[in-house]
Amino acid sequence: MMSNHSIAGLALCATLLGTGLTSAFAADETLRSLADKNNIYIGAILNSQWFGGGLPGNYEQIHKTQFNIVVAENEMKFDATEPSENRFNYNNGDKMVKYAKQNGMRVRGHALAWHSQVPNWVNNYKNDKKKLLSVLKNHINNVVGHWKGQVDEWDVVNEAISNNEPQWRSYSVWYQGIGPEFIDSAFVWAHAADPNAELCYNDYNLEQGVNPKAKAGFLLEQVKRWVANGIPIHCVGSQTHVEDTTTDKHFIGSPDSLRSLAKELAKLNIKLKITELDIGFKSGINVSKSDLERQGQTFRQYLDIILEEPNADTYLIWGVSDKWSWLGGLNRQKGLIYDDNLQPKPAFDSILVRLKTYEPPQDTVKQDTTKTDTTKTDTTKTDTTKTDTTSNDSTIAIKTIASMSSLSMHLSDRTLFIAGATAAKVDVFDMQGRPVFSAKNVKGSIDLKIAEGMYVVRVRDGSKSLMQRFVIK
Questions:
Q1: Per-residue confidence (pLDDT) for residue 410, from 0 to 100
Q2: Beta strands 332-333 and 424-429, pairing class
Q3: How many domains does the chain have?
Q4: Per-residue CA distances from 192 to 106, 142, 189, 293, 466 (Å)
Q5: Three-class SS of residue 469?
Q6: Packing angle of the helix pair 4-17, 394-404 (nearest 10 deg)
Q7: What is d(CA 337, CA 349) in angstroms, rounded to the nearest whole number?
């Protein structure tokens, strides 16, 4: 319990340090803390290597520090959870759910009905509709039921639409053996197994337009039918596996197209979630600094959809580091926000700055997507012990916060003055998260040779980091 004397010391410290106290808290800002402030979820998968302890310790530290939602790369798919008929394996899924609970993270379940990663034994029943329906229902009842109240949302059906002319994917064992009604049934069964879970349809290439010949246009018609028929669907997941537009022109304008889908779904009271985002470059090409900065701006454009559309709440990236990524299978590379050495890329900076600078319109309120705290109320008796006013701990409080606040900066005209740094790196971003100025080994001060306007300035010195907003006049 903090004594009154300690509180007085903190107040005195704030007076003595001025902006330094603000600096201490600014240094702690993460993607996660800023996402929480904006009432959205930002996250990344836990790579399969994590479940076997095959990743370095700083991978997990980054993951739980920067993200507030998690999904398993493979460990909740059909072949992982029911490898043989009616024999279920929840070990890895339980490990992720425990990790999420320990770190206060939302959990996505992926995926219940999919044409891929289905164990061979399921194909034994592809010509027996009644049996195949029973298999799918039993799987959903058991898997969703096992994590009832622990998994917040499920990809109930994944990639059921064909790549070609929009139609149902005909080579799915579920479609071949049951027909398209397996989709309606899967949602009904999942809702019965956990009435409080959000249920999504998830697919890729949904950012290619909403016209009737596009996959998203076809899906919209199905969503309208599901809603009209009372099928319990709550969200559409856009995987958003895209490529840099310099090598694949199909993705020009994709953020705008995805925003259009969000607006159409809002008319049906259905959420849009970005569930598997990566923005890769063609394999084999040299990726330059300007390429990475352009990539960062594309990440920001997709983030703007989640920030600005009232029915969008989730921004989930399909990986943490380029070193552990599935993109090689798509002939792509370097599509994530951390490099091979788990160092943040310009895409990370772009996301961070945009989260910090975003201000919602005053006439709209973003839906609060924070998870209700269902933990047991703390009934511990209040400490009524009389405060010890003889202890001179204000000095300790001042020293503690002073050490936290050792990095500070202020602007005079166009000169940035930095205190508490030995050789700082200075980065300046515009309000859209685009880098406009950078300098290394700054000692004391530096002139910012940039145009008039509002900017975000970040100063780094070793492990210390500080970010503030300034107006250049």
A1: 87
A2: unpaired
A3: 2
A4: 21, 11, 5, 46, 48
A5: strand
A6: 40
A7: 9
Last residue of a domain, one of 329, 357, 385: 357
Q: State the pLDDT at residue 11.
A: 36
Q: What does the pLDDT read at residue 454?
A: 84
pLDDT at 325: 97
Q: With CA atoms as reference, report the closest residue to 349 among 239, 462, 282, 429.
A: 429
Say how far apart CA 252 and CA 156 lie, in whole Å. Answer: 30
Residues designated as active site: 159, 276
Strands 241-243 and 106-114: unpaired
Angle at the Cα of 77 from the Cα atoms of 72 and 83, rounded to 5 degrees:
130
393 inside domain: no
Model confidence, pTM? 0.81
**DSSP per-residue codes, 322-344:** TTS-SGGGGTEE--SSB-TTSPB
Q: Residue 192's domain spans which residues?
A: 23-357
164 and 99: one domain?
yes
Note whether 331 and 206 are same-domain residues. yes
* List of the chain residues with pLDDT < 50: 1-27, 368-405
The two beta strands, 435-442 and 464-472, are unpaired
Q: How far is CA 37 from CA 200, 223, 341, 358, in A?
A: 25, 31, 29, 10
